[in-house]
Amino acid sequence: MTSKERAALRAKANRLEAIFQIGKGGISAALINQTQDALQSRELIKLKVLLETAPEKPALLAKTLAEKTGADVVQVIGGSIVLYRENPELHEEKKVSQKQPAKKVNIISKPRIKRENKPAAKSGSPSKDKRVTHSVKKDGAKSVQKPMYGRVRTARPVNTNGRAVKSAGGNNRRQSKVK
């Protein structure tokens, strides 16, 4: 196993929960059988060693368990052991179940219509003649109607003092002082 493969397996094992614990009984026949079954179905497993009660150190336990199950030791950190044994049956199922890629179909794209030639919209955005306009005086006499974009501002209600009345929703810069 190369170091890159080992690093990838360590990354995958980081999110795994430990499925077995090795305690004062050490490595028994039952533990070996369960570990082999788990490696057959998952390929990558994590075990926990109870450091206070285990008869041997985790590194030695990992080496012994790997030899008996035919697995590779990916890592041993503290009381955690990660083992990996490749199962070709799991990889064959994935290859068979994958769908064959769809055939490429030549799609003829629609010709692009210029903005001037497009028909007017029936609903939704207003057409040019329905847009809100405001007059702008340019250099004196002439007044020009320009389209107004964005939000249309409405007149604010005013109280008797000539100040704006505070609306129910939102902060106003000027707040009326009602006595």
Question: Could you characterize what this model shows?
Answer:
This protein is α+β, with helices and mostly antiparallel strands. It has a domain at 3-88: Translation Initiation Factor IF3 (2-Layer Sandwich). The chain is 26% helix and 18% strand. The strands form two sheets. Strands 1-2-4-3 form a four-stranded mixed sheet, sandwiched between helices. The longest helix has 14 residues, at 29-42. The model has no long low-confidence stretch (mean pLDDT 76).
Features:
alpha+beta, Translation Initiation Factor IF3, 4-stranded mixed beta sheet, two-stranded antiparallel sheet, 6 strands, elongated
Tell me the radius of gyration. 38 Å
> Pairing-aware structural class of the strands and helices?
alpha+beta
Give the count of helical stretches: 4
Contiguous runs where pLDDT drops below 50 for at least 5 residues: none
**Percentage of residues in DSSP E strands:** 15-25%
Mean pLDDT: 76
Q: What's the shape? A: elongated
Largest sheet geometry: 4 strands, mixed
Tell me the CATH superfamily of the domain at 3-88.
YhbY-like
Work out the helicity level.
25-40%
Cα-to-Cα separation, first versus last residue: 84 Å
Based on the coordinates given, report the CATH architecture of the domain at 3-88.
2-Layer Sandwich
DSSP E strands, number:
6
